[in-house]
Fold this sequence. Notes:
alpha/beta; three-stranded parallel β-sheet; 4 helices; 3 strands; 34% helix; 10% strand; disordered C terminus
Amino acid sequence: MAHNDRVLVERIKGRWVRFKHSLPRAKGPEEMAFWKKKKALEGDLGNAHYKFLYTEHWGLDDEFYRGKKILGIGCGPRGSLEWADMAVERIGLDALVDKHRALGIDKHKMSYVNPGSKTHVGPMAIST
């Protein structure tokens, strides 16, 4: 390989390494460490505060959700839709669902789905 070609290859390698290190890292390990610390501090991960965020904050009441299907994207392990027992279905979609099971999500009444799994939720039609 000629000198100029080797220089070019080294430049490309250097740029690739810088580019690769500039990409965001997978959030899984950091997020799980965060939730494990929260669980250690709080015991059960509470979710009572979510009702306000889905209702009053937007000028809505519980009845708005009656008979509807609710999909929480990136829901985490707290059970962000547990309050909505008037809904027909409550589904939490999170890439870390399988790991969140260790934090107690199986105690929740809402369903959880890992978008990378073979599980299929089906069409989500929100009635108005």
